[in-house]
Amino acid sequence: MSWDADAHLAEKVDRLHQQLEQVLAHVTLVRLQGQQQATTLRASLAKGVSDRHTGQQKLTNRLDATEIQSAKIDARGVILIGASVVMTSIPGAIAYFAPVGAVVIALVLYLTGRFAWKAIGDGLRMT
């Protein structure tokens, strides 16, 4: 039904009411579509946040595991470094007194091992 400029006033008012009802129906439809799209976007955003949080937690766990493993490897290396220092420098200086040299070597190896195991234990407590 189109607009008739020559129609009576009552018909024009009725036609305006019909057009108003059509506009309100269209506005309601657009509003519902907007709400549905907003709901979809919120769900997508929530999923993205959840995925990011999960990824961040996995990365944090991997970094923690890497640090612990590095601490264990470093602690094991301390034993070898301490033993190599003892074996290369001290025996030459105290070789003249063999029993004293053996005691010094044993003491240094013991202390090196003790500090290494302490470092390993500290690395395990980091978890």
Kindly describe this structure.
With 127 residues, this protein is mainly alpha-helical. The chain is built from 2 helices and no strands. The longest helix has 86 residues, at 9-94. The model has no long low-confidence stretch (mean pLDDT 81).
| Oligomer category | single chain
- What is the H/E order? HH
Q: What is the rounded Rg?
A: 41 Å
How many distinct beta strands?
A: 0
Number of helices: 2
Strand content: under 5%
Shape: rod-shaped
Mean pLDDT: 81
- Helix content estimate: over 70%
Largest sheet: none
Measure the end-to-end span. Answer: 77 Å
Q: What is the strand and helix layout of this fold?
A:
Blueprint: H1 9-94, H2 98-125
Helix pairs in contact: 1-2
Features:
2 helices, 90% helix, 127 residues, mainly alpha
Give a brief rundown of this model.
By secondary structure, this protein is mainly α. The chain contains two helices and no strands. 1% of the residues are buried.
